């Protein structure tokens, strides 16, 4: 390979890695939004259930940044496990397909700088969870 091909391959890996980071932050924030809202309106049980989903996703995504093959493979296995649990029903694909895609992007991509990726993956869902809970408390039920 020459230098130009190396640069293209490196850029492709970087793009795939950052797509995976963005998807992880978005899905984590989505789960965090439910955790914050359910915690205010439905109590601790619902809050902890949604928080556990968010934390599982965030931890697997952080593993994908640190150990791309192992963490990405874990996301693929988790996505396929969810797909198997739902019988690979196309109407449920929004639950498992993003996990499989994220995992593949982590496996074939690389993220640099890692500290920024860690901050985005862990920080975005945390901020969304807290802000959603605060809004729910301030606005009250029925808002």
List the helices and strands and how they pair.
Elements: H1 3-41, H2 44-66, H3 68-85, H4 93-108, H5 114-139
Helix pairs in contact: 1-2, 1-4, 1-5, 2-3, 2-5, 3-4
Written description of the protein model:
It is built from 5 helices and no strands. It has one domain (10-139). By secondary structure, it is mainly alpha-helical.
Tags for this entry?
mainly alpha; 5 helices; 143 residues; 0% strand
Element-by-element helix/strand order: HHHHH
Into which percentage range does the β-strand content fall?
A: under 5%
Q: Mind telling me the C-alpha Rg?
A: 17 Å
What structural class do helix, strand and pairing data support? mainly alpha
Low-confidence stretches: none
Number of helices: 5
DSSP summary, beta strand count: 0
The helical percent reads: over 70%
Summary of the model, kept short:
With 143 residues, the protein is mainly alpha-helical. The chain contains five helices and no strands. Helix 1 packs antiparallel against helix 2, helix 2 crosses helix 3 and helix 2 runs antiparallel to helix 5.
């Amino acid at each position: 390979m020459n230098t130009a091909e190396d640069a293209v391959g490196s850029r492709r890996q970087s793009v795939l890695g950052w797509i995976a980071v963005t998807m992880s932050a978005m899905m984590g924030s989505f789960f965090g939004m439910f955790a914050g809202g359910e915690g205010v309106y439905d109590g601790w049980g619902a809050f902890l259930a949604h928080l556990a989903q968010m934390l599982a996703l965030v931890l697997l995504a952080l593993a994908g940044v640190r150990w791309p093959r192992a963490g990405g493979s874990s996301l693929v296995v988790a996505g396929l496990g969810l797909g198997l649990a739902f019988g690979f029903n196309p109407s449920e694909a929004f639950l498992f397909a993003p996990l499989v895609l994220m995992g593949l992007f982590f496996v074939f991509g690389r993220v640099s700088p890692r500290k920024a990726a860690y901050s985005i993956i862990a920080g975005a869902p945390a901020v969304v969870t807290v802000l959603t809970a605060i809004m729910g408390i301030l606005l009250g039920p029925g808002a």
